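lol ok so funny story. i was supposed to be doing the assay writeup but got distracted and ended up predicting the structure for this chain instead. priorities right. anyway since i did it might as well share w the group, maybe its usefull for someone
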Amino acid sequence: MKKAKDYMNLPYNYIIQPIKDESGEYYYARVLELDGCQSTGDTFEEAYNNLREAMEGWIETKLENGFKISLPVGYENFSGKFIVRIPKSLHYKLTIEAEKEGVSLNQYALYKLSS
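and the output, tada:
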């Protein structure tokens, strides 16, 4: 089961707008894919930071109550698989390193790509 931090690392779309109304000037921020996940701030940076905090709480609440969390727009179009051609020498080197670590080449490549 995914945790809030797993969702927090996905490429959601943040919308941050400057607002001028009867209450003054501020920034309004929301997450496009997460209906009702929003916040405000006096500056762009504050609105962003407040939104990230609100987003974590929003996701945690939804998960605790068994609700489905929407994925980022277009995210479901990615399979998690892609093919990369590399030189034979690099393929050999990575295979040896993976064997030393006791993991598959795929796991080792994923580790190297994510660090």
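The chain has four helices and three strands. Residues 79-114 form one domain.
back to the writeup now i swear
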